[in-house]
Amino acid sequence: MQYGHFDAQAREFIITRPDTPAPWANYLGSPAYGAIISNNAGGYSFVKSGAAGRLIRYRFNEQDRPGRYIYLRDDESGDYWSASWQPVGKPIEQYKSVCRHGTGYTVLEADYKDVRSEASYYVPHGADHEVWRLKVTNNGKTARKISVFGFVELTCESFYEQDQVNLQYTQFITRTYFKDKFILQTINENCLNAVNESRVDTRFFGLAGAQVTSYCGDRAAFLGGYRDYGNPVSIEKGKLDGTLNYNLNPCGALHTAITLAPGESASMVFLLGQKREAQAKELVARYEDAALPDREIDELKKYWHGKLLNLKIQTPDDNFNHMINTWNAYQCFITFIWSRAASLVYCGQRNGYGYRDTVQDIQGIIHLDPEMALEKIKFMISAQVNHGGALPLVKYNHNPGHEDKPEDASYRTSTGHPSYRADDALWLFPTVWKYVAETGNTALLDETIPYADSGSDTLYNHLKKAIDFSLNNLGIHGLPAGLHADWNDCLRLGAKGVSVFVALQLYYGFEIMIRFARHKKDSATEKQMTDLKTKFAAIIEERCWDTDRFVRGITENDQVVGKPGDPEASLWLNPQSWAVISGLAEPQRGKAIMDLVHKELNTKYGARLMAPSYRRHAFDGALALLFNPSTKENGGIFLQTQGWLILAEALLGRGDRAFEYYLESCPAAQNPIAETRLVEPYVYSQFTESVESPFEGRSHVHWLTGTASTVMVGCVEGILGLRPDIDGLRLCPAVPSSWKSFTMEKTFRGKKLRITVQNTGGGQKLTVNGTAAQDGYIPASLLKAENDILLEM
Ligand code: GLC
């Protein structure tokens, strides 16, 4: 069944049935003030950290409750409902609702018994408070007396875990007050008068644009005994009883009673934030200006749409267009900005950026906002240790030049990361390359950036150190050790066992260094990297190739992982796709291994990470065994890898195959099977259960996943064939043969490119502003402010 559809013009996903198979969420604000909201207004907010700055209580892994609830009540009949379908949950035959998730805002529209409501939720750009703007309209023929109630369940204290667990303490530090137009919550209030005011938190929940008829600041009084959010006693009665919280659980609840003539509308705003009393008062006053929310929502749209417009495609496949133009792109920004901080699955406990995750996330936005990417690239480089390894977790308060590292017990205890991972620093190669190629900013290579622990160096030398780290951590057969993990968190190959994926990443790193060295006319490095490349190609050939595939690793006891005939895990996806991406496998062999992947690993929802799943034959160190078969790293469809698969097929020029994989795991294409997929049809998730699961096709861990960026790269660089390099742009689309033509508008180094591709099979011909260009290549020097480009292929 289909629960919604895309609106390309508005860049919204529109949910027309509220009983979605899972809460379908959106992200508002930024980690400075973050808000996650589902299509039923479930979700939570936090200041700076999901773990340490939690404002709204949310019960994970339950029924998407509570959230930002607005209740409406007909004061003549006593009938009540909510502006979101849940929590009251009127029969959907009588309650018509639409949820519009957009870029930085969510609108919930409802029509029930001639009353229309429209609740717009957003965090103003750059602000640290949130707004729920409600419009109510009487569409009936008689006047209506309507009560509107805003309700939020506040945490007793900002530390999420404490709030949930340490009840003997947290329930006795909170109070609420009523202050004319808002409920004020104070936490550790007595400390306001003490030396250290920093222990005090104050929050407010306010109402602007309407009078407060009644209020309540105590959850128990609001809900009533043995009641739920769906039937609070105070809503039933039509009045809040004025109880304020002194110990136990606070809430913010404000009521306004209005009368609407036929056709009449009213508009009001509920506000929430962590503010002192005076600031709260000032904010509530500011929102008495009824036009402010529309201006602020417009500003959010301009901000996001401005970024998204830097690549606009029009292809014969609408699902592809929706994802590349808006939703995959928006998700890339969200993962770039929020990392793995907080979602309806991640509780916010990760206190930093995973090195590999963030360095990969950066790749997803380079084509849209290279400046934004640059800042993060420098930040991540400053988290490289001066021996070349990278901090597995970069703390939010990262202090370059002064950090402790995995060698130090303090780092291990504060982050929970016991040692280095083999792949972290190697992700810099594709990321830095993509940035330099997109912008032509080669000066970056000479920029001095600190190391995490001590000293500093040019970015170019940082990259050399990343290579050194791998060369200084070789295991058996002279191949890179797998250390604590490589990209796959579930592979412990140790200091002697080796990772073939890392060997291929390293090989790719040599290639990128050759390109940079050539550009810098550094012939010594160019030669050194070329020699290393040749040397490693030979070792990989000798040790990592078996019969018809690249193996996945070799344990310290010389046991080969992923060889033909193994009863389990005999074929792994990543070594095949990365053999192509790294350039190690020449086209003929590349095609053969990718054909093997198609035959042995592909399913209708994408290709599996490996197969068959581990059950009885896992080596010591194959942690995937912990998962059920066909789940996550144990033979599931780990969606991040689909991006590499798509890219590899596109690099081989096989557009039909690349697009076949694309569609298999494309969220938009799975919209008609939303009940199988469960998670949002507009964003990627971490993995999909595969063939051995009774729930094949079910997907998990929405929004914050590396899938967003790898698939974006697979599509932009792979399928669409936008492949910049230092001097210009190569156009090499690998599209389905059924696509006869498509267009792309791209911003490239501040210039506008209007590209038309005609796929008529008549050979390669490229025209730039009416002049023939050579070999599918557009030198940057030829470009004007605006350019018309035609590629015939
Ligand atoms: C998760 C982790 C990521 C890892 C991947 C594969 O997505 O966030 O760091 O590479 O799993 O194990």
Descriptive notes:
With 793 residues, the chain is an alpha+beta fold. It is built from 20 helices and 44 strands. The strands form twelve sheets. Strands 1-2-8-9-10-11-18-15-14-13 form a ten-stranded antiparallel beta sheet, covered by helices on one side. Helix 17 (640-651) packs antiparallel against helix 18. The protein starts with a strand and ends with a strand. The model has no long low-confidence stretch (mean pLDDT 97). Bound molecules: alpha-D-glucopyranose (GLC). Alpha-D-glucopyranose binds at residues 354, 356-357, 487-490, 633, 686, 706.
| Order of adjacent strands in the largest pleated sheet | 1-2-8-9-10-11-18-15-14-13
What percentage of the residues does DSSP assign to strands (E)? 25-35%
Class from helix and strand fractions: alpha+beta
Sheet with the most strands, sense and barrel status: 10 strands, antiparallel
Q: Please bin the fraction of helical residues.
A: 25-40%
- How large is the radius of gyration? 28 Å
Beginning-to-end CA distance, first to last residue: 39 Å
Shape category: globular
Count of helical segments? 20
Mean pLDDT: 97
Bound molecules: alpha-D-glucopyranose
Low-pLDDT sequence parts: none
- The count of DSSP E runs of length 2 or more, i.e. the number of strands, is 44
